[in-house]
Design goal:
Blueprint (H helix, E strand, L loop, with lengths): L15 E3 L5 E3 L7 H38 L6 H33 L3 H5 L5 H14 L1 H16 L9 H22 L3 H20 L7 H9 L2 H10 L7 H30 L2
Helix pairs in contact: 1-2, 1-4, 1-5, 2-4, 2-5, 2-6, 2-7, 2-9, 4-6, 4-10, 6-7, 6-9, 6-10, 7-8, 9-10
Length: 275
């Protein structure tokens, strides 16, 4: 048997180490980097959830379309129509990214599924970000269908639909972070489901109803909801001369909340995975 000198190994490190009892122990490989690990988790989550989540996405889209049809006979101004269409479109994102992700992480924690991820040499952030990105991806078709249907129903222009390419990921990141945090911090999966449902209901009621008809205290609660800024950013683009600086400011709020909420979800994952 030939012996390879230690100094010719990559980095000069030994391939095996001797334990106190004299037995060899294989050296563990390096931990995966964030972005390759995130891409792997994203692909795995996307393929796992594709079949199970498509019916739920259809329900979310049908729900938003039904809301717009009901509101068609209620709104009496162009500004209110803009709020209804923008809010109904973002509700699809809230249903999947907030509600379903809270349920998923709640069940994963209760069933011991986090132990599987804890054994993988991947950063905790990649697990949270990969799952959040996969769930947010499912909202793209439903959001686009809802937005196009709403514009046709209320006679709104279709020229600035491209702004949804920014609204969906940014609002989705903020809501997905909140959903993951609720699922990971809730002591029981039933409570995680309840928190997800309450968050989605808040996004539905506070995002779809025209703000001009809300009491002052309800408007304040609306301003605390991160999806509100995605709704406002999209609604502002229906004007003849949109104020793009304000639109970018609204999207910036979504991005900031997304960073904070995903960081909180990552910390919650670390805490839940070591228990």
């Amino acid at each position: 048997m030939s012996v390879v000198p230690a100094d010719v190994l990559p980095g000069g490190a030994l391939a095996v180490e001797e334990t106190a009892s004299g037995g060899p122990v294989a050296e563990l490989g390096p931990r995966a980097r964030l972005w390759p690990a995130l891409a792997a988790v994203y692909r795995a989550q996307l393929s796992r959830a594709r079949v199970a989540r498509i019916p739920l996405l259809f329900v979310a889209t049908f729900q938003s379309v039904g809301i717009m049809i009901m509101m068609r006979g209620v709104v009496d101004s162009r500004g209110e129509a803009q709020s209804v269409v923008a809010g109904s479109s973002v509700v699809v994102v809230a249903f999947v990214a907030l509600n379903l992700l809270a349920q998923y992480f709640g069940q994963l924690r209760a069933s011991g599924g986090l132990d599987h991820y804890a054994t993988l040499p991947v950063p905790p952030a990649s697990v949270v970000l990969g799952a959040a990105a996969a769930y947010a991806s499912f909202t793209v078709p439903g959001t686009l269908v809802t937005a196009v249907f709403g514009c046709v129903l209320f006679g709104l222009p279709l020229g600035n639909l491209w702004i949804l390419l920014a609204v969906i990921p940014l609002a989705g990141a903020a809501l997905a972070g909140l959903g993951a945090a609720c699922g990971l911090l809730a002591p029981r999966p039933e409570l995680a489901t309840l928190l997800g449902q309450l968050g989605m209901s808040a996004a539905l009621l506070l995002g779809v109803l025209p703000p001009d008809r809300m009491p002052e205290i309800i408007r304040f609660a609306r301003d605390l909801l991160p999806s509100t800024y995605g709704v406002e950013a999209y609604a502002r683009t229906f004007g003849t001369r949109p104020d793009w600086a304000v639109v970018l400011a609204d999207l910036g709020v979504c991005a900031g909340v997304g960073v904070v909420s995903l960081a909180v979800a990552t910390l919650a994952y670390r805490r839940a995975a070591v228990r």
